[in-house]
Amino acid sequence: MPRPLTVVLINDYPLVLAGLATMLWPYSHRVQVLERQLGSGHGHAADVALIDTFGSPVTDTRVLEVLRTSPTSRVVVYSWHPPAVASPDLAAHDRFSGFLPKQGGPEELVAALERICAGGPLERPETARPVSSASGPDWPGRDQGLSERESEVLALLGQGLSNEDIASALFLSVNSIKRHLKVAYRKMGVASRTQALLWALDHDFARTGTDAPGR
């Protein structure tokens, strides 16, 4: 019986890391998860480093830093809106395996990681599939009713980004960001940016990877 592949999960938010690990736990006979945060230095030796982009727009600089500091075979970026093609700097790196969209469920994620480790191509799911709340990823504010997109907008707001910067990072329009914030404010029971930031600090939005590159 082949050994499970090993995966390092990379993100600045402990709740996001815990949610990913929980999502993959039913597949522990195929995937062994090693958690870490972006910017925590050298990680464990693993087959794949999976960078979750929640709350941390992943630049080439960050991905190249993970490639440099993590003794992993492959690096994959896990995102709701991955670019169609990698930049020349990333494409030229033999350990960068590409961008994997979050629209697929945990089975698709595990299968994609196995395919990568076997030397196969990174195939994107054709359509979005629902992920149950019991097995899906987690994010700050979820228990208070925030959607993952609303949570991510709030996380970037907390990093001092303007609406324009958030829109650029998430590949959305400024009007879309304003709509997400309006809905999030209503769910949080706040009326201003300052109140929203104070609310976020009380609801697991604090980042832990403060020494991550590119900040």
From TrEMBL:
Domain of life according to the entry: Bacteria
Domain HTH luxR-type: 139-204
Protein name from the UniProt record: DNA-binding response regulator
Example GO biological process: regulation of DNA-templated transcription
Residue span of region Disordered: 122-145
UniProt GO MF annotations: DNA binding
Membrane-spanning residues: none
SUPFAM superfamilies reported for this sequence: C-terminal effector domain of the bipartite response regulators, CheY-like
Keywords of the record: DNA-binding
UniProt-listed InterPro entries: CheY-like_superfamily, Sig_transdc_resp-reg_C-effctor, Tscrpt_reg_LuxR_C, WalR-like
The species this protein was found in: Nocardioides mangrovicus
Gene3D superfamilies, alphabetized: 3.40.50.2300
Entry-linked PROSITE patterns: HTH_LUXR_2
